[in-house]
Write the structure tokens for this entry.
Amino acid sequence: QVDLLESGGGLVQAGDSLRLSCAASGRTLRKYGLGWFRQGPGKEREFVAAIRVSTDRTAYADSVKGRFIISEDNYKNTVYLQMNNLKPEDTAVYYCAAERSGALFTTVGMYDYWGRGTQVTVSS
């Protein structure tokens, strides 16, 4: 069992930056695949970014490529999402997720554990 707790969300203006954190407890994240997803108002949950901890290989949604950076800290057992040049369309609840096989997945259904989410609101 892995428990995930997101933090760092908030209300910002377009062009600002935020860093989301996801702290894991219960198991080391070293063998997991980790992802960030988001769900905007009235929308389905969508992929944002993922990282394969064992290789540091990453993947990003086209909508955030070049603006967002996913990273992880093994010692703190924490995964981060640095979000730069935020846009109003980035407004959503952001969720951290982990999957046991350690692969790099971009689909919701492949993840085994989820946090409760943190709200990010970007005003224009």
In short: The two ends are 40 Å apart (CA to CA). The first strand starts at residue 3 and ends at 7. The mean pLDDT is 94. Residues 5 and 23 are 5 Å apart (CA to CA).
